[in-house]
Amino acid sequence: MYKQSLGERMFNVSNASFITLLSLTMLLPFLHIVAKSLSSSEAIANGEVLFWPVGFTLDNFQYILQDSSIWRAFGISVLITVGGTLLNLIATASLAYPASRPEFKAKKLILLMVLFTMIFSAPLIPSFLLIKSLGMIDTLWALVLPGLISAFNFFIMRTFFMNIPSTIIDAARVDGLGEMGILFRIVLPLSKPTLATLGIFYGVAHWNSYQNALYFINDPRLYPLQVKLRQMIVTDELSASQGADAYAMMFSSPEGIQMATIVFATLPILLLYPFLQKYFVKGSMLGSVKE
Amino acid sequence: MEDTNTVLQEQKPIVNLKKKKLPVNENKSNEPKRFESTVAHLKKYKMLYIISIPGILYFIIFKYIPLLGSIIAFKDYNIFQGIMESSWVGLKHFQALFENPDSLRIVSNTLLLSFYDMLLFPAPLILALLLNELRLVIYKKIIQTIIYMPHFLSWVIISGIFIGVLSPSTGIVNQFIQWLGSEPIYFMGSEVFIRPILVFSNVWQSIGWGTIIYLAALTGINPELYEAAKVDGANRWKQTLHITLPAILPTFSILFLLSIGNFLDLGFERVYTFLNPLNQQNGAILDTYIYEVGLQQAQYSFTTAIGILKSIVGLILIMIANFISKRLTGTSLY
Question: Is B258 near chain A, with CB under 8 Å?
Answer without folding.
Answer: no
